[in-house]
Structures are given as C-alpha cells and as structure tokens.
Hints:
Blueprint: E1 2-3, H1 12-25, H2 33-46, E2 51-54, H3 59-67, E3 73-76, H4 82-90, E4 94-97, H5 109-112, E5 120-126, H6 135-145, E6 148-152, E7 160-161, E8 164-165, E9 172-176, E10 189-193, H7 196-206, E11 210-211, E12 214-215, H8 226-237, H9 239-257, E13 263-264, E14 273-274, E15 281-283, H10 287-299, E16 302-303, H11 324-330, E17 333-335, H12 344-361
Parallel strand pairs: 1-16, 3-4, 3-5, 5-6, 6-9
Antiparallel strand pairs: 2-10, 7-8, 7-14, 9-10, 11-12, 13-15, 15-17
Helix pairs in contact: 1-8, 2-8, 3-4, 9-12, 10-12
Amino acid sequence: MINVTKTFLPPFEKYTALLKRAWDKGWITNNGELVQGLEAALRSYLGVNHLWFCSNGTVVLQMALKALNISGEVITTPFSYVATTTALLWENCTPVFADIDQRTFCIDPAKIESAITPATTAILATHVYGYPCDIEAIEKIARKHNLKVIYDGAHAFGTMIDGRSVLSYGDISTCSFHATKLFHTVEGGCIIANDDQLSRQLFLYRSFGHLADDHFSMGINGKNSEIHAAMGLCNLEYLPDILASRKEQWLYYYEMLEDTGLQLLDLPNDPRLTYNYAYFPAVFPSTEEMMTTLEVLKKKEIFPRRYFYPALNTLPYIEQQHCPVAESIANRVVCLPLYFDLSRQEQKLIAETILQAQKQNI
Length: 362
C-alpha cells in the first residue's frame, strides 16, 4: 500500500535519549527545557527573533487573530485546509473569499483589493503546497488600506525568498508541525511575530495569560510538551536530507508527467526562491478523468489525496461566495504520494499508472 504520505521517524534511540532528559527531571510540560531548546533551534534555522512552539497549527491561527484584535471581515483564500476558514469563524470573524491565481494556487492579489470594505480588518493568506504567496503585492495592499496580514504557513517550512524564510513575513505567520508535514513534532505548530510586544502577548496567550501567580491577560492552553519537542529536536537534524529527498522525488514526478494533459505546479526560474517541495499537486483536465484515475490507482493500492477539497467558499455552514478558479481547481486536483522513503520504483509505478489511466480516458 502506498499512501499519500508517511511520517518521517528518527532513530528510536535518539528520540528516547532526549526523552530520558525530560523523564529524569520529571519536567514534561509547562515550557520545559526541550521546548525552549526547540524554540531556540527553530529561531536560528528560520532566522527569526520570536517563535513560540504551540500545540497545533489551528490554535496558532486563533491566537494570531486574537492578538491582533481582528474582527469584522477578513479577506482570505478559498483554497486551503479547512482550519484557515474555521479559525476565522471560531473567532467570530467573517471570511470574505478572494479567488486564487490559476498558476500558483495562492490567493490572487488582484482579487483582494476589490473585496475590501470598511469592515475589512485583515488578510489571512495561505502559502499553498509550500509555494509562497505574492508577499510584496499583499503587503503593499495591506499598507495602503491599513490592514493586518497573517500568513498560514502550514506548508511553508523550508521555503525561502532571497534566503529569508517566508515564515518571517506578515504581522504574524503560523506553521503546522503535524505528523504529515515535512518537519513535524507529531502534533504541534508555531507562531512567529516580528514585533517584540506582540510576541510577548502571544507568549502569554499560549499559557492562559499568566506567569506563575502573576496574571496579565486572558489566554488559552496552547502549550506543547517535552515529548513533542523531543521529536522536533530529533527531526530538525535530518531536515537537509528530508528536503533533498523530496526535491529529487518531486523532480522525478515532474519529468514523468510534464508532457501529459495534467497541470503541474509551475516553479518559476527564480534564483530568489528556495522551494521546499512540500507537495506534488496534479490538476486533471476534468473531475471525471481525475475520479477514473483515482479508481485505477486504488486497484493498485495507491492512495493519493484530493487536497484541497472542497473549495472553502462552498462549505455548507458559511455564506456562499463564488470563486470559479478555486472551485475548478479543487474539483480536479490530487496530491501524489511524497515522503522520505518513497522509492523510485514506487514513484515509477504511480506515474505509469496515471499514464495508463489517461489512455483509458481518451
């Protein structure tokens, strides 16, 4: 069986050696030494001054909205994981969807400005499949209209522009460290802010708003444990190998499938961009052809994922807004299996099966 992803796990002995440090101290949560060590290591790796390790990639979105005092309407993307939209709803904000760029799948800056109203307070954009949004255009729009910018960087760990992590942009950026991500802590996430005061507020929010017996603000339990931090510290050591492996696999898929009728993520020949090769999306000419191909793959126990599906503007519990590009892509896109120890033989089987299925669709 070949699933869309498989969790990378470090050598068990390395992981348990780190766990023993926490075990011996009896300090397994509440901002322990391993959590602090992971935060320091991630700040160094990403080149940011402020980063807090949190319990997951959804709570950090909620913390970002709360810390920036976001209310009213927030312009966001219809093409992301559902948490991007539900975080807005959870914080009593109104999502206003701006359609996506046909080529990059990220929110289209040209569609943002026309969606701004007097009730708009922020832009919440997602770096889709690890490919960065048009950060310069978004920040220009935000400055013009005095809007806050939050980037959902759940896929963006390891992606850089001009040697700078994309997670360092915006008023706040968030990331997910879920077990399906290329860098993971089993469950977890982080939140990054450039402003000192804002970062301190996020630190307080993560721990119920208090330090020891001194209470400063409201807060939430957004903490994470030493057990999860140990996984992150182990995995960070292997990140260069993980990124190199994914790049090699990604390029092989592209070579096998670029001359088909599939739309693939078109990486520009831009020396400024360092891509993390987080996902390999393939957009089929039609929903029918995609579904037929999925059935053929399933018979060989190959299980890609319809990701993202559905378009978030079509969710049944929100006011419907039409985003034709996102709806079209969401109905035709599949992410192919991509993980550290996926073999070339398995990739070849996947690609050849897709090609065979296309012949059946002719």
